[in-house]
Description:
- The chain is of the alpha/beta class.
- It contains 13 helices and 17 strands.
- The protein has a 9-stranded parallel sheet.
Amino acid sequence: MATLLFSSIFVMFLALLSLADGGSIGVNYGRIAGDLPSASKVVKLLRSQGIERVKVYDTDPAVLRSLSRTGIKVTVNLPNELLHAAARKQSFAYGWIRRNVVAYYPHTQIESIAVGNEVFVDPKNTTAFLVPAMKNIHQALVKYKLDSDIKLSSPVALSALQNSYPSSAGSFRPELIEPVFKPMFEFLRETGSYLMVNAYPFFAYESNSVVISLDYSLFRQNPGVPDSGNGLRYFNLFDAQIDAVFAAMSALKYDDVPLVVSETGWPSKGDENEIGASLENAAAYNGNLIKRIITGGGTPLRPNANLTVFLFALFNENEKSGPTSERNYGLFYPDMRKVYDIPFTVEDLKEFGDESSPVTGGGEVRVSSNGSGQSWCVAKDVGKDKLQSGLDYACGEGGADCRPIQPGSTCYDPDTLQAHASFAFNSYYQKMGRAAGACYFDGAAFVVTQPPKFGKCEFPTGY
């Protein structure tokens, strides 16, 4: 009976998971290649995979026309080389919006405009034109009454951070704060927009593989990395990088500005010195990231911030310069075969089998809320040894209140390892104030927001 009860709870959890208000996955559709399929074929590919967002690096008419009436949300780009003109002349901004947005909207669902891309590392030094260009482009949206429908931002590379480790010490480069970041954040706040960030854990791992765990980089099982500055424990490098940006924004008093990850990815091939670039690692990173995002939950620092994330990139691009990795970030080959098999939707997750770490930074799975803001920690079906080890820790060193699961006590029945471990894990989780990382137990536990029930035992929600 106890096994049936837990099975019912687990099935209910999976059903709730499928309805979770999770984040959103999009793809970057780069076209620096000479062998790519037509835009119309690309749109069919996107729709066949359930991909509902795409970001392009220009405003190519063939692409925008092909996306018309598809329901796919589109981010277009004003390239860096046009920033000076957009900043200098309001008339240029009016014309650009008229030709590249008004001409296609609303049949092509343009939802945002990326003004420039990684402007701060542009060798042509276009930084001074960024905010004025954003303001002029926004004024053009106002002119055509599109400012409430289309948001403006600018993708920022992590190199814009002065400090990124630990996450709690995240800060922006001092020389960019007054002339760029503060006025840009004011603009984003006033227009209800968000910061776009390009984050690549691959680069950090490649440069520091001696000290950064590959499992930590790929969302796989790992003991986590504590941050003494904020008291949180991080179980993947992606969360740590994003929280460093959140911390940098908070230091400038812009906690209310949301964040979108405009690029992230992992190469499936690289040069000999590009440590970690492989087909297996790319599949693990992107697959586990997608699982992490679409099943809901934010970062340890911002647990309620469901993220929109754009993977880089749709195709391998054979005309890109630089190391081998630059031409091998694609999810698909130019003939539209998958480079590796990963999920794009909640339905696809049923077939995804990489052994990943908890889907959120705190080892938590967030499912639809019960309306009370409460949550509980329960055991996974991971085998006797791992469950017993977690139970022993919780009731011993962890200081959980395990008296109710002793023989003759209120929660002894059902007398199963799964039920007892769940009670002990939850006791520890509640004792720790439901802190991020408190429901982990070496991957043997997850968080639910519906009250668990084993027999007549009621799980506490706080001490």
